[in-house]
Specification:
Radius of gyration: 17 Å
Shape: globular
Order of helices and strands: EEEHEHEHEHHHEHEHH
CATH topology: Rossmann fold
Structural class: alpha/beta
CATH class: Alpha Beta
Strand content: 15-25%
Number of helices: 9
Strand order of the largest sheet: 1-2-4-3-5-6-7-8
Helix content: 40-55%
Largest sheet: 8 strands, mixed
Length: 255
């Protein structure tokens, strides 16, 4: 489904629907299309906002997870929003956690799926065979439980991205920043409700990562999706949306 990408004041973002606000943060290699089914389903009764994170646009020395969280805060101030729920996948979850630590009063709740912040096993420190299409295809398939989820379009996008030298050095810098920035000692400070919706077969942020998040976050619940890898909202969108809706409605009842 096609959504309107707004471009203004240096920001590129999707803003669909009306109501309570869901702020979606994509991952390191993620595209806005990763959230298509979430937007389609929830924009009927929520306001769904997704900024494009400027992973490829920052100076190399400042490319990191903390800088991304600062960018999100500038975007939030520009949009004039408050009392919103953050949804973050992979790197987006990590950025969301840092944002919540620094600006918790603005955030109503947090949803993490395949989030970094404790441990991740991504591409590693390099792309030793990035010009080899079959190697890249294998790595993209590794993200999912069912390799068929890695469509040719998705593989083509990743292949093009990592063979752009400007982009790949920033991807590696961002990945290293995420690995260095372990949040285990800070998670106890996050007291808003957190829902962990995790693929039981995630090989990048494995199930034990979700269990550790659940133990360290004071007000969290952990929900599993079977036969699912690192991006549940792509691989099992209906089940992901069902679990997300249950969490959001439960939070409404608390108010």
């Amino acid at each position: 489904m096609d959504f309107v990408l707004k471009e203004e004041h240096g920001y590129s973002y999707i803003d669909e629907g009306e109501g309570e606000i869901l702020l979606l943060l994509h991952g390191l290699m993620g595209a806005l299309s990763n959230w298509d089914m979430v937007i389609e389903d929830f924009s009927k009764e929520y306001r769904v906002i997704i900024p494009i994170l400027p992973i490829y646009d920052l100076p190399l020395l400042t490319t990191g997870v903390k800088t991304m969280a600062k960018y999100v805060h500038k975007f939030v101030r520009y949009m004039g929003i408050t009392d919103f729920t953050i949804l973050g996948n992979s790197l987006g979850g990590h950025v969301g956690l840092i944002y919540c630590l620094n600006h918790q009063p603005l955030v109503k709740a947090l949803v993490l799926t395949g989030s970094s912040g404790l441990y991740e096993n991504a591409f590693g420190g390099t792309f030793p065979r990035r010009e080899n299409y079959d190697f890249v295809k294998e790595k993209v398939e590794y993200t999912f439980y069912d390799p068929k989820t890695a469509t040719k379009e998705l593989v083509d996008d990743v292949f093009k991205t990592i063979n752009d030298r400007h982009k790949v050095i920033r991807i590696l810098a961002m990945a290293k920043s995420a690995i260095r920035h372990n949040m285990s000692k800070d998670l106890h400070k996050i007291h808003i409700p957190v829902s962990l919706i995790w693929g039981r077969n995630d090989k990048i942020t494995p199930p034990e990562v979700a269990v550790e998040f659940n133990q360290l976050l004071p007000d969290s619940d952990l929900q599993w999706i079977d036969h699912c890898g690192h991006a549940p909202m792509m691989e099992h969108p209906e089940e992901f949306n069902r679990l997300l809706r249950r969490f959001l409605e439960r939070n409404k009842e608390k108010v």
